Amino acid sequence: MQALLRDISQIRFGYYSQLTAGIGIPYLQVRQFDDSGNLIANPDTFLKEDIKSTSQLLNDGDIIFAGKGNNNFAWGYHNEYGPAIASSTFFVITPDKSKVLPEFLVAYINHSKSQSYFQQFGLGTNIKSIRKDELGEFIVPILPLLLQAKIAAMYNLNNMEINLTLQLLRKKNELYETVINKLTNS
Q: Residues 6 or more apart from 159 whose CB is under 8 A from it?
């Protein structure tokens, strides 16, 4: 069985507001994520806490999707990250958890087949931008929740292995650089 994303979730735009200096609610921006959609930097931009901004707080299980630019990744928000608001470069997707697990949806959106789907939008423009209705037309397989959980676990394990491999490569390169420096400075 398959469903359109708009039929199994609510989709809204991220929030745009003026930044405040170093205090307030963390404001998530694309530059704080790597190409795979992993949060790599602590938010360094903040919004003033008021009625408008607090109404835009992410909820546990919300997914932010980068709808602008060449890298259309998804990232799942969990309360353990602390309060946060997605900037206007993101869409906020709130899945119906009785039909689709947020973690599965992140894994499926970030899969290469899905990324190919998103790459077709905005071609020929300087800054590629996906429209809300185009995102809503994205087809998602509706699998049993247990299978969705297994796919999400495989996705997370794969990401952990990739990150460990990258760390190992950096350490190997540092070791190589250190050895060459010592040998050539003797």
A: 36, 38
Distance CA 89, CA 27 (A): 11
Residue 110 domain flag: yes
Does the residue 151 lie in any domain? no
CATH number of the domain enclosing 138 = 3.90.220.20
**pLDDT grade for 112, boundaries at 50, 70 and 90:** very high
Q: CA of 90: how far to CAs of 39, 98, 135, 173, in Å? A: 14, 24, 12, 35
Quote the pLDDT of residue 186: 67
Q: What backbone torsions phi and psi does residue 90 show, to the nearest 5 degrees?
A: -110, 155
For residue 41, give both structure tokens: 């930097």
Number of domains in the chain: 1
Global pTM? 0.88
Q: Which of 8-22, 53-67, 92-106 is predicted least confidently?
A: 8-22
From CA 58, how far away is CA 92, in angstroms rounded?
A: 8
CA distance 77 to 57: 11
Domain encompassing residue 72: 2-142
